[in-house]
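Treating backbone geometry as a discrete language has practical consequences that deserve illustration. The amino acid sequence and the backbone structure tokens for this protein are reproduced below.
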Amino acid sequence: MGKYLIKRFLVIIPVFLGITVLVYCMASLAPGSPIELLMSDPFATEMDIERKRQELGLDQPIIIQYLTWLGQLLKGNFGISYRTYSSVLELVASRIGPTLILTVFTTVLSLVVAIPLGTMAAYKPYSVWDYASSGLSFAGAATPNFFAAMLLIYIFSIKLKILPTGGMYDATGPHTWGVLLRHLIMPAVVLSIQQAGSFIRHMRGSMMEVLNNDFIRTARSKGLREKVVLIRHGLRNAMIPIVTQIGMNIPFLIGGAVITEQIFGWPGLGSLMVTSIQARDYPVIMGITVFVSLAVLIGNIIVDVVYTFLDPRIRY
């Protein structure tokens, strides 16, 4: 296991560099320039604009700009935001917590819904459970995030007035867990709709395959209770594809959070990324890229480790 983990962490290095190169080049080649936004003063001269471009290093070729940024990153310096002139590390670090709260709560909510529905659909195929879970799965997968967000805001905020329209806490009042939960419900439900639909389909297929294996028939022939057979022998083996799906859904979950955070005003990395792209704030864009790419790459390694606990055969 130790050698395997070392190899996986070594593979992360070229993949991480490839991701940062692609993002830096795409951001730099996108239409518009941070100079145009920073030097919005109509009385600014060409000399002022050129001086600002040299100050930010934007007069250099893209490859030189990237190598300069990478050299500073290796020293632990994420740079300074073009837009707010604050430390990129502090700016991104202040947004990681809200995004983690949202993504973790969304994943847990998706699993709580998907595992029972997928298991019952596989245990009783072509029953009401199966048709209901399949319909819910396809409806969830086909529902766009922005549409679900607008619908929930209209029902629960405008009509029923029981949930806040956005933000992480109330504008006035204490920052308690209860207040946070009220603000968290709608964005988490929006993100979990598509994810739960995908998990239900995978759980059903995996569970049906496991329940047809010989070891399940052997467990039943020993006289074990059906609940024990289903949970201890069936569910544990059926969870391996779901764990894989969780690892694959990490980037899509973060990508979906960009739109959802904007709609609900959630102060996470998604809303910061949108603001930074609009302002062509390259240091912040790259800072978010570093954290998100490392989270995805390390998350996939953690998924591989979890495999060994679910199926001891993989360990060997």
About this structure: The mean pLDDT is 82. Residues 226-264 form the longest helix (39 residues).
